[in-house]
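Q: What would this complex look like in 3D?
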Amino acid sequence: MGLLSSVFKKNDQQKPADVAKAETSKKEVKPVVDKITVGHVHMSGCTGCLVSLADNYGGLLTILDKYADLVYGLTLADVRHIPKMDVALVEGSVCINDKLSVEEIKQTREKAAIVVAVGGCASYGNITRFCRGGQQNQPQHEAFLPIGDLIKVDVYIPGCAPTPQMIRNVCIMAYLLLKGSPEQKALATNYLKPLMMAAQKGTSACFCDLMTEVIDQGLCMGCGSCAAACPVRAITHEFGKPQGTRDLCIKCGACYNQCPRSWFSFDVVSEFESISELIDTVMK
Amino acid sequence: MGAELGKYKSCVSARSTDKAILAGAQDGGIVTTLFAYALETGIIDGAIVAGPGELPWKPKPIVATTVEELLAARGTKYNISPNVSLIKEATRSYGLDKVGIVGTPCQMQAVRKGQLYPIGLRDVGDKIALAIGIFCMENFPYQSIVQLAEDHAAMKLESVAKMEIGKGKFTFMSERGAVVPLPLKVTHKYEQPGCHVCLDYVANLADVSTGSVGSPDGWSTVFVRTKKGDDVWAKAIAAGCFETKAIDSVKPGLELVTKLANEKIGKNQKTVEERKTFGVGKGLRIPYI
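A: Here is my prediction, written as C-alpha cells for the whole assembly.
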C-alpha cells in the first residue's frame, strides 16, 4: 500500500498541469455513445479466429475506437460472465460433454441480439468434427457440434481461419445495420444477407458441397476460386474443374462459400468499388 | 435493358502499337500490352494469365512476372483456365504485392466477390492492382475443343495455329493454312453448361474489359470501368502503348456489342428461370440472390 501510494503520488506530482487539464476535458465528450457492443465467445476452437480478429492490427484499434466496445472476451476483457451485447462473435464448436460450454452457448443466444459464428468450427464443426476423444486432460470430451446445432445463429463467417478482412467487414456492417442511416442499413442488410442465408442453410460443410451443390447442379464454370480459398490446398483443377483430395478436407466451408456459383449478390458485388472505398474510409 | 454493358467511364476501339505483341495476339493485343506496360512501370508485380499447358491448346494459369511469360500467354484458347486459383498463391509463394489478373466475366465476378467476401482469401483483396476482363459468350471444356478440332474440323490440335469465334462461326486455322469455319449451331452443344447461367457478356466487374466484338478486324473494343482502370489506361495511352479510335467512328461499333450482350443475357436469364421448374415440382439451385 505504501509503495503503491508513493508511486501514484510521485506520478501525480510529476504530471504537468496542462496535461491533467486536457485529460479532464476529454472525459466530458462522449465519443463512444453510438458504438455497438461486441463480445468474443470462446468455445472449442484454437484461438486462430481471435488471432485473425487481432490481425486487423491498427484496424482493430479503429474498430474498438469508433464502432464497437469489446464487452466480453476471454483474453481481452476482464469480464467473467457473458453480458448483454449487440453482437456475439462465437469462435469454436460446442463440446456437448462439457456442461459449462453448453450453458455458455445458450446464454450467448439469450444475451446477444446477433450471434455470429466466426470460423469453420463454429459454423460447420471444421477440424473438431474429427475428434474421437482421448485427449488430455479431458479424454471424455469427444462430441463437438457447430453452434448452429444448439442455438439459432444469425450470421456465418466460414473459413479456417476466417480472414481478418471478413471479420472486419462483418463488424463494420453490423455497426451500419444497428447505427447507420437508412441507406447504410440497406447496404449492410444486402451485404450480410448471404452470410445469414449460409447460417440458415445448415451446419455441415465439405469439399463435397462443390460437387453436390455446384458441379452436379450444372453451375461450375472453372474459375478457380475454390482452390484459392482452400486453406489446406486440397483442391486442384483437372481439365478446368475442381478435384478435391477429400481426406485432406477439414470441412471449413471456405471453398463452397468463396465460389461465385454458391451464392452471388449482384446488389453487393456490382458495387465493389464504392463498398471497398466505404470500408477504406471508415477504417481510417 | 440498359445495364448490359455495365458501368464504364470510357469506351474506345484500340490496338497495340507493339508489332511483336500484335503478331501473336488474338485481336488488338490489349491484354498483353496493358500488362506488359503495367509490369514495366511497377503498377503490377506480376499477372495471372492463361499460359501454355502440358497439352496443345490447354491453358494453364501462370503467374507471369516477365514480359516473355506474358508473350507466351498471348491469344485466346477457348477453354477453361482457372486463373482465380492462383490469386492467393500469387501473393504468397510469388510474394506479389500488386497482382494483375485476366479473366472471363465470371472470373471477374469471382475476383470481386473475393474482395468483398474474402472467405478464404486473407490479405488478397487490396493486392489486386489490375483486373482485365475479356468479353465472353461462353467457354468450352478442353475435351470439347479436342472434339471440335479433331472430329468436326478434322485437324490435330497440335497443328492448329489459331482459333477464333466471330461472325457466327468457330474457325480453326491450321499451321499449313487450312481454314475450317464451324457454324456455331454445331458448336453450341459442346459449351460448358455452367456458362448458361452467366448474366455478363463484357466483364462488367473488371477494371478494364476488352474483346474483338464491335471493332474492325485486328482491333479490340475496350471499356475502362473503374478508377484503377482509368488510371492505368490513361498512363498507357500517354506512354504510346495503344492507338485508339472513337468507338462511334468504327463499324460495327457498340450497337453490335449491345445486341450480343442482350442476346447472351436474355438467353441465359431464360435458362435461370427454367431451372426453377426443371423437375416435377422440384427445381435446380440458382446462385443469384
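A: To summarize the key features: The longest helix of chain A spans residues 182-201. Chain A touches chain B through 57 residues (CB under 8 Å).
Q: Very helpful, thank you.
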